[in-house]
Amino acid sequence: MNISPLKAYLRPNGSWGLRNHVLVLPLHSALSSSARAIEEASQGAVAITHDWSGEIDADLERIISTLAGFASNPNNFATIFLTLDSPNERRIIERAESLGLPNVVHLSLADAGSMHKLVDVGILEADQLLTRALLQERIPAPWSAIVLGLECGGSDALSGITANPALGVASDMLVDLGATSILGETTEILGAEHLLAARAITPEVGVEIVNTVLRYESSINYEGIDLRGAQPSRGNIEGGLSTLEEKSLGAAKKAGNAVFTGVLEYAEVPSAHGLFFMDTPGHDIEQLTGFAAGHVNIVVFTSGRGTPTGSATMPVIKVATNTPMATSLKDLIDLNAGTIADGIESLSEVGNRIFNEIVAVANGKETKAERGGHHEFSLSRLYN
Amino acid sequence: MRKILILHSSDNVAVCLSEIIKGEIIEQDGKKFSALESIPRGHKIAIANIDLNEGIIKYGERMGHATSRINAGSHVHVHNVLGDRLASSDS
Amino acid sequence: MKMEGFDHGTRGIGVRDYQLILPSVVCSTHISRRIAKDVNAVTFSHQHGCGIIGADVAGIGDFFASLADHPNVSSVLVVSLGCETIQGQELAEKLVTKNASTKYQIIQDSGGVEATVTAGITAVRSLQESYPTKRRPLNDLRVGISASSNSSIANNLLEALSALDIYTELVGGKSPADSFSHLMEKKVHLILSFPTGDQPASGFPLIPVINIASDSALHQAISADFDVPAGTPVENIVKLILEVANGRETIAEINKSGEILAPRLVRST
């Protein structure tokens, strides 16, 4: 039972990739269209785009960690950086290398001579890297190769009863086997933090969980922001969720019952195995970006309303909380947990199905989001 | 099939597993009451009388408070519930 | 020089004839791109529409509305996920009040990705049929200038254009993308951009951008990305402006470079 059926790509620093992507990462927003052009013309490179134009402000360090962590996600065989060769861009590349990125290609616009030439060089580099990536084989990997991200979005009142606790079952099974699992979305544990803190490995970790929520709560109060309309969102309210606390109590079920090993900053890479909490926004895409930057290599995303969201680097498994949505949005849902509310399956049966799907996808099975080519990206900013 | 799901013994609300029609009699888990209004699937129904400002309990935990008296069988949602934290009082 | 533009009804006369596929939330950007590709329309990626609070809810809605109301836009398809803070349907309804040639498609109500793409393409085609291209004389060209206010060449251009009775607007934002967005809200037909020496040439999906180089090392190294070399006389630039207004493509248009940057006021939650 404890022998892992996993096969993955071993990286030089000992981490494991469940995919072998060649990522094209522009480090300036003006190079976004070049990155996209390279993706479209190459034989399978993936590109992301973003809106950072090198601004040096209070969010700079967060942006550097995010881009460097994303570039060095173990699912990336290589990252092609498109830059203006500024000092901060060079810092991002150095940080990505120190985080274990095995293959780095740095293309500067000035060296290429024009956007057009940058795209041409980028396509050549991408295709060469893709050829090399194809030569690398998956080898048997331990359970600890899995770093699972727990995500929910477009929640409804069934989220906390069906998909989230079923994902909790799968997460507990993986953590027991030695894998890592990360819960995020500080907004969405507000009201449930005392339950999570009670499961912390040490009193200090418990205090850290509570303080992370308090820090968030006081920053929102301090700015005098009215969360109505955003939390719970209008979609949540239509789905039957009435308060932020109710949403949080349901959202926290994703983390099962395992002990919390530690708290991570946004985009921080965990240095041990076990269950972690990462301080991220509730915005689905910013949250997924933080996970990818924190070297999560596979995500399970539960949804009541349905979403096409995917990631350029992590496979994202979509689990529906209710059968009507799973039926109507077939081409974006991988698994239906609505069977629990229908009285057809038990929580542990669905938990086992999610576990098996995680293993299959880790070993290369394509998710619906991967098949559709969905890979949204969003930089998280605290100071706008 | 179950009409409602009570998640914890101390809860005063339950989740409707299918749409509830006004006047429907709900008899489950030792409780019996009639639905005072129609309630969509996935939304909450009061399974006890809840006083103004009393806590709304779901999953055995407090998820907010009542902004008016809520009778058993009523729809429990944003029109009569407010979160205790990060919620404005004028909604 | 006589100019001819595109009659876009209440939006005005445009110098380009673009259909806009407007994702109301980051989650619908990929599907928007698939639709746009199929029907040769303009779309853009952004990170907004959900988890936004306070002033941003109205602010980003207004920003999207001004994109949809731009004179270079012939018709608009709003693509919404369904559960986001900015509801696609409401956004479209708000846009319809300004302009009839607006439709919307909601992913969560459409039966999934492929069904949304198919329905979206059908909707855009029917907009094309209902609102065919009509050419009209253009008498009130509006030119935006993205430059720091102390740029002498930008100020000389302002004077030259004013002398021709051409409306001008100068914005010096924190980046070209930021300035372009502000100029878009001012409904300029085309933009002259003077990026600082450390910034590259850039474009904007709905508006032709003429990039003017400085003598910085970066700009010299990538001179092919600029329409106008450093030191070009003002009258030559004015001539180019009129040509671009009449349809000549800028290098940023040829390269399809540049993104639309929606300004954000508040942190996300």
TrEMBL record, chain A:
Record-linked Pfam families: GD_AH_C, GD_AH_second
GO molecular function: lyase activity
Domain D-galactarate/Altronate dehydratase second per the UniProt entry, residue ranges: 8-133
Boundaries of every D-galactarate/Altronate dehydratase C-terminal domain copy: 144-382
GO biological process: D-galacturonate catabolic process
Alphabetized InterPro entries for the sequence: GD_AH_C, GD_AH_second, UxaA_altronate/galactarate_dh
Keywords for this protein: Lyase
Keyword Lyase: yes
Similarity comment: family membership: Belongs to the UxaA family.
Protein name as it appears in the record: Unannotated protein
Native species: freshwater metagenome
From TrEMBL, chain B:
A GO MF label: lyase activity
Domain SAF: 11-82
Entry-linked Gene3D superfamilies: 2.30.130.110
Keyword Iron carried by entry: no
Keywords: Lyase
Signal peptide as annotated in the record: none
UniProt xrefs under Pfam families: SAF
Gene Ontology BP annotations: D-galacturonate catabolic process
Database matches in PANTHER family: ALTRONATE DEHYDRATASE, ALTRONATE/GALACTARATE DEHYDRATASE
Protein name: Unannotated protein
From TrEMBL, chain C:
Domain D-galactarate/Altronate dehydratase second: 5-129
GO molecular function: lyase activity
Entry keywords, A to Z: Lyase
Ranges of residues in domain D-galactarate/Altronate dehydratase C-terminal: 191-261
UniProt keyword Calcium present: no
Keyword 4Fe-4S annotated: no
GO terms for biological process, alphabetical: D-galacturonate catabolic process
PANTHER family xrefs: ALTRONATE DEHYDRATASE, ALTRONATE/GALACTARATE DEHYDRATASE
Sequence similarity: Belongs to the UxaA family.
Name of the featured protein: Unannotated protein
